[in-house]
Amino acid sequence: LVAFFMKGIGPSMRDLGLIMIPCGAASMVTGALFGEIFGWGEAAEAFVGEQVKPLMEPLWFDPILKAHHPIIFGIESGVVAFFVITLIFGGIHLNLGVILDVIKRIRMKQSPLFPVLCLWFYSGFLFWLMYLVVKGGLYPDPKLYGWMCLPLLIVFAEGVKEKRHESIEAGTSGAMEVVIWILGGLIEVLDVFSRFLSNTISYGRILAMALAHICLMVLTILIAYMLAGIGLIGPILFVLVIIAGNIVVIGLEVFLVTIQDLRLHFYEFFTKFYEGEGKPFRKIKSEGKRVVLRFR
Questions:
Q1: Which of 63, 158, 214, 226 is packed most tightly, with the most Cβ within 10 A?
Q2: Nearest to residue 200, comparing CAs of 98, 115, 122, 262?
Q3: DSSP state of 295
């Protein structure tokens, strides 16, 4: 409602309102999936007490409690299930970025070998990581490790080849140069492995934001019930704390979620394909001279 009102204030407020409308719609959808309306949910009932009755049942599950049935891949813990879901979304997001890199290289008539090898490796690595989180152990089939190691071996060979080419151009040779070639290949392999590991785990910050939201809302409701028993003004304080708490939490989460969202896009997504090169954009404008005619 605030977003619709902001659309009529001015151009800048209109743009902000257009952003807030889908954000508000997404919040309502996720609130329905996790069974929370302005803090009232199963988590508040579990931590505050039975006096807090959920306003609706979760359409899916509560992110912080154990579900009554398996949520995904046989997982009943809401926290673990939510983390696995963030890994899935992160994997899709990262794969999309690498696919865009493949398309960019083909359009620029460059070799798409490296991003293709990354896709090859990451398809197995994501499966291995999710198995580790869900089952709590390493995947037993050695074929998966062979699937992941083969593209890394090609990356190693390409790294050695590149360092060797640099040595030939520089006119240097010797045993030390061979060591530098091998180190160059190893650095490329470690870079691919560590980058995709850190990028994937980084999407776990979505889980952290969800847990922080639940904790803040539970704290707000707890304080409201503590003040509710203060004589005649207790009910008034209860309502004021609930309203003020929701406003403060929404304001904090606007900044926190925006910052984390921008970070995931800038560091995890755009770095897969974007390069700050090319020609700067210049607006096309007609060249002319202004002539002033004065009549006496």
A1: 63
A2: 122
A3: -
